[in-house]
């Protein structure tokens, strides 16, 4: 399975980089995982709705340029579907079973994900109704993907 995590913005925090590197190393025996960073737009605090839409559109174009037609796209959205770790593992297993070996997880920028990216999405997934920093979501996502592979293989993992 080939998994891409397409994320808006550069990761700056050293502790998050270390955590992400650890999960990428652990995932190496299960799947080929790559992080794709797309440039984020400047998003000052008091933007108009039109400016917000423009930022989303530009970031969305960059995201979509990294997704091929045969890729199953999972967007991380606050209003997406919430799954248990076991159900998430089952979903990934089903995708692999039915020939969807290329998966892209999309983590938007600070103002969210464009409508075009949402329309391209095959599954909108939510980890919580809470808002998390998008940089931190990379590590949380990778941990859950790692947990899913452990569950799929019947390997022990902390519950």
Automatic annotation (TrEMBL):
Keywords: Cytoplasm, Methyltransferase, rRNA processing, S-adenosyl-L-methionine, Transferase
Pfam families with a match to the protein in the record: SPOUT_MTase
Keyword Cell wall biogenesis/degradation carried by entry: no
PANTHER family attached to this UniProt entry: METHYLTRANSFERASE, RIBOSOMAL RNA LARGE SUBUNIT METHYLTRANSFERASE H
Family of this protein: Belongs to the RNA methyltransferase RlmH family.
Keyword Translocase: no
Protein purpose: Specifically methylates the pseudouridine at position 1915 (m3Psi1915) in 23S rRNA.
Name of this chain's protein: Ribosomal RNA large subunit methyltransferase H
CDD domains: RlmH-like
Main subcellular location of this protein, as a coarse class: cytoplasm
Enzyme Commission no: 2.1.1.177
HAMAP family cross-referenced by the UniProt entry: 23SrRNA_methyltr_H (MF_00658)
GO MF, any single term: rRNA (pseudouridine-N3-)-methyltransferase activity
InterPro entries, alphabetized: Alpha/beta_knot_MTases (IPR029028), RlmH-like (IPR003742), tRNA_m1G_MTases_N (IPR029026)
Locations listed in the record: Cytoplasm
GO CC annotation terms, alphabetical: cytoplasm
Record-listed S-adenosyl-L-methionine binding positions: 76, 108, 127-132
Catalytic activity: pseudouridine(1915) in 23S rRNA + S-adenosyl-L-methionine = N(3)-methylpseudouridine(1915) in 23S rRNA + S-adenosyl-L-homocysteine + H(+)
Assembly information from the UniProt record: Homodimer.
């Amino acid at each position: 399975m080939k998994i891409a995590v397409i994320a808006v913005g550069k990761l700056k925090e050293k502790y998050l980089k270390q955590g992400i590197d650890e999960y990428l190393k652990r995932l190496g025996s299960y799947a080929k995982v790559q992080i794709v960073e797309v440039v984020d737009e400047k998003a000052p605090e008091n933007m108009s709705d039109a400016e917000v839409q423009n930022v989303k559109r530009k970031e969305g174009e960059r995201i979509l340029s990294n997704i091929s037609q045969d890729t199953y796209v999972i967007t991380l959205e606050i209003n997406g579907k919430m799954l248990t770790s076991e159900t998430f593992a089952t979903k990934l297993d089903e995708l692999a079973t039915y020939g969807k070996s290329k998966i892209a997880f999309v983590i938007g920028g600070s103002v969210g994900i464009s409508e075009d990216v949402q329309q391209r999405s095959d599954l909108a997934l939510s980890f919580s109704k809470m808002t998390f920093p998008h940089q931190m979501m990379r590590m949380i996502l990778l941990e859950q993907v790692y947990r899913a592979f452990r569950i799929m293989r019947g390997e022990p993992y902390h519950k």
